Amino acid sequence: MSIGTGRSDVFSALGDPTRLAIVERLSDGQSRSISELALGAGMSRQAVTKHLRALETAGLVANDRIGRESRYTLDPRKLDDLASYLQSVSRHWDEAISRLKAFLGED
User: Fold this and answer.
1) Domain locations in the chain?
2) Could you read off the pLDDT of 38-95 as tens digits, one per residue?
3) How far is it, in rounded angstroms, from Cα 23 to Cα 38?
4) Which long-range contacts link 70-76 to residues 24+ away (Cβ below 8 Å)?
5) Are the C-beta atoms of 58 and 10 separated by less than 8 Å?
6) For residue 55, what is the enclosing H or E element?
7) Could you confirm whether domain 4-75 is CATH 1.10.10.10?
8) Distance (Å, rounded) from C-alpha 79 to C-alpha 29?
9) How far apart are CA 29 and CA 72, in angstroms?
10) pTM here?
11) For labeling, which of 7, 42, 49, 76 is most exposed (least CB within 10 Å)?
């Protein structure tokens, strides 16, 4: 089972607390502008833009340009893929632990 380049990019993007917080804010399905995301985040719009670019590169957010404003929405497909991957890893561990318990006679 390979994690794949796409998944490692997503894990890397989510490994930053600021980007994780942005994903959490967008998880309600509402699109938000850079200004809205910067509000209350304690950082400049330029800093938020940098983080949004990393999330966009990883495929976690989509950018819709409306006039001069960029609005960002969460694209949950990458998160769904990660959830499936983590469930698969969990199943493999559960199976390995069951085999170990059976070997040790603890089942």
Assistant:
1) 4-75
2) 987 888 999 999 999 999 999 999 999 988 899 999 999 998 888 888 888 888 787 8
3) 13
4) 70/33, 70/34, 71/31, 71/32, 71/33, 72/26, 72/31, 72/32, 72/33, 72/34, 72/37, 73/26, 73/29, 73/30, 73/31, 73/32, 74/23, 74/26, 74/27, 74/29
5) yes
6) helix 45-57
7) yes
8) 13
9) 10
10) 0.76
11) 42
